[in-house]
Amino acid sequence: MQIATKDQMRGMDRTAIEDWGISSTYLMERAAKGFARAAAELCDGVRWSERAENGNSGSGEEKGDEAKRVAVFCGPGNNGGDGVAAARFLLEQGFLVRTFLVGRRERMTPDCREMEKRLIALGGVLEDFVPEEQGQEGWCQEADVILDAIFGIGLHGAVQGAARTAIRWINESPAPVVSADIASGVEADTGRILGTAVQATVTVTFTCPKAGHFVGKGALYAGRVLVHEIGIPEEVREKWLHLPLQDKAEQTQLRDWTGAWENPATLETLTLAEVGRLLPERPKDGHKGTFGKVYVLGGSVGLSGAPLFASQAAVRSGSGLVFVGVPGQIYGIVAGASQEAMPYPLACDQEGRLIMESLWSISNRAEHCDAVLMGPGMGRSRDVERLVGKLLLRLRQPLVLDADGLYAIRNRRELLKERASRGWVTVLTPHDGEFAYLGGDLSGQQRLMEARRFAREYGCILVLKGHGTLIAEPGGRTFVNTTGNCGMAKGGSGDVLSGMILSFLGQGVKPLLAAALGVWMHGRAGDLCAQEKTVYAMSPRDMVESLPGVFRELLGQRRSRKEKSPFIL
């Protein structure tokens, strides 16, 4: 699913209104219905359709103490208009609603004013927000649900004044919060927090998700993200989301890397259905060579678990043959724990780290494989750095660099450019600390832009791990991951991920999509673990053992082909 920038969204709205003759108030009411629906269902668990069928509508006074209390905070812009219209729909459904205007009335947009007229016609009131009024604050504290429509995707300056107070009230209330389009205070394209922001329980975003829902600190404020269609024609969406490249040679190169070439500088997220379609097919007459031969190089004394986790993940992800090269000092440990993968010993120093004398043996074994992983638990030494450098310029296969493999090239990043110039694929999987010593700069909170810059400069696929892992390729096409949880923040989790990406590369999945597929499934395995083990007790081994459950979900979804709800995340 593609993610839109604020400029793309504005372009869609403008085109739909000016070129297609769709009323702006029609679009606003469609947005408001989705907003109100999510708030109503979150408030009391009754589905919107069931409420209407049962005649569950009327004024709050008619329902008395049984009616649920709703506080709606609206700005003077069109996002606020969504909130005013949603307040009217909730009144119609029998909720007790108080609607507050956070901002000056003279700044209200024409559509917001129109929604206020319709609210008044139903008996509602758009009250001026008064921070000193205890009655308003008391209503907010006693509300059953709060709607946040103060700012939309256009916010670019720090939140100040009355809006800051309103956001504090919202966050201090025990009620669940539903935000319209994006939590107020979050910058739409970067996920930066502009001074302060609403902590949403649910965000109902319109037409397309936004980057701020998934990247930066904004991902921590979005809650559950629901995408609601408001009636913008598909042709309009395609116009603004897909801008074909002009350079045919560049199209061919990007197709080889990503499997697609339309508008590569896009930000996307994967749904369950999309992930299911990415799974490589398994021919009925296939054999172990059909499903990829992959090579894991790593391990050292004290770090024997890292290559084990990676190789086990590769086996569980579908690889036909998994070879594991480890230092001779830990070979017995790895061999004793390996049943499906095939480890073998390599020359090492007295500390159990690989040395240059192992180069020929590694090259000889790796050249017969479809993809290679270097780094898990490899340790750090001058010989390790020299060995990794030599292998980078010898191995033509898709190569995944992780952990100590990344450290080994921290001062030799030009090797990545050399591989790219030869048309060889390199996937890097750093966390923030590793990204920093590779030359990445996250100080400005521009995580998405920096990931894209690095991938473009070094001609690699970058998997920047963290909350909302980013997967970027040189042309700018980027995925942001939506699965996973804090229970995965344990040693060994990254080794599982690198082994999964390795496996999909070996099975012939396009490099960018192999990385995105591995990241999504890794996070989903973590989510299944958290359900069973809790985020405290789950382990990387549990994640490997949860992979069959993830595959069952994906294969079942692929077979069912059921229509999705308009709330699709």
Please outline the helices and strands.
Blueprint: E1 2-3, H1 6-18, H2 24-44, H3 48-53, H4 60-63, E2 69-74, H5 78-92, E3 96-101, H6 110-121, E4 126-128, H7 134-142, E5 145-149, H8 161-172, E6 177-180, E7 202-206, H9 218-221, E8 224-228, H10 234-241, H11 248-258, E9 267-268, H12 272-278, E10 293-297, H13 305-316, E11 321-327, H14 328-337, E12 342-346, H15 359-366, E13 371-374, H16 382-392, E14 399-401, H17 404-408, H18 414-421, E15 426-428, H19 432-437, H20 447-458, E16 461-464, E17 470-472, E18 478-480, H21 493-506, H22 511-537, H23 540-560
Parallel strand pairs: 2-3, 2-5, 3-4, 5-6, 6-7, 7-8, 9-18, 10-11, 10-13, 11-12, 13-14, 14-15, 15-16
Antiparallel strand pairs: 1-9, 16-17, 17-18
Helix pairs in contact: 1-10, 2-5, 5-6, 12-23, 13-21, 13-23, 21-22, 22-23
Number of helices: 23
Low-confidence sequence ranges: 57-64, 244-251, 565-569
Major sheet: order of its strands? 1-9-18-17-16-15-14-13-10-11-12
- Distance between the ends: 9 Å
Mean pLDDT: 90
Gyration radius, in Å: 26 Å
Helix content: 40-55%
Tell me about the biggest sheet?
11 strands, mixed
* Number of DSSP-assigned strands: 18
Helix and strand composition category:
alpha/beta
List the keywords.
single chain; 569 residues; alpha/beta; eleven-stranded mixed sheet; seven-stranded parallel sheet
